[in-house]
Specification:
Layout lengths: L2 H8 L3 E3 L4 H23 L3 H22 L2 E3 L2 H13 L7 H18 L5 H24 L8
Antiparallel strand pairs: 1-2
């Protein structure tokens, strides 16, 4: 077990808690809604909100994944540590999920708190969010969960 994940468990930043099928599917639907909203904001050249919405699409997709493994997160950092520990380090899902999520978190914080954002960052964050959504929804579909239609 990685130090980051172990620390999150000990601080109760990640808690073992079985989730219902409906909870997993609701989080994935939320991820899809945020992704659709991010794409709309991108078309409107609203780059700040594009980045924020794309990040939250990734966040909710990863929450659905974590719920499917019987965990719930209490912080953004612990969500990342849990996805890394339970899925990417074990070779179940590609490590790009974690690196893309970290990059999007940094971009979201810069847009939200530092008011630093632009078209290139918005485009990249949406592309990463699309990939993460496709990977996670494909994984969950293979495990019997209903996924939102494109």
């Amino acid at each position: 077990m990685s130090y980051k994940f172990q620390d999150c468990v000990s601080r109760r930043g990640v808690v073992k808690r079985p989730a219902s099928r409906a909870t997993v599917e609701r989080e994935l639907a939320e991820a899809k809604g945020d992704l659709d909203s991010a794409k709309k904001s991108l078309l409107e050249s609203d780059y700040k909100w594009t980045i924020i919405k794309a990040y939250y699409s990734m966040f909710h997709a990863c929450k659905s994944l974590l719920f499917s493994a019987g965990y719930v997160e209490k912080s953004h950092e612990c969500l990342i540590a849990a996805i890394e520990e339970l899925f990417t380090d074990r070779g179940i899902l590609p490590p790009a999920i974690v690196s893309d999520l970290r990059r999007a978190k940094t971009a979201r914080e810069a847009a939200d708190y530092g008011l630093t954002y632009g078209e290139a960052s918005a485009n990249g964050t949406v592309q990463d969010a699309e990939q993460i959504f496709e990977i996670i929804s494909g994984y969950l579909a293979k495990h019997g969960f209903k996924t939102p239609s494109p």
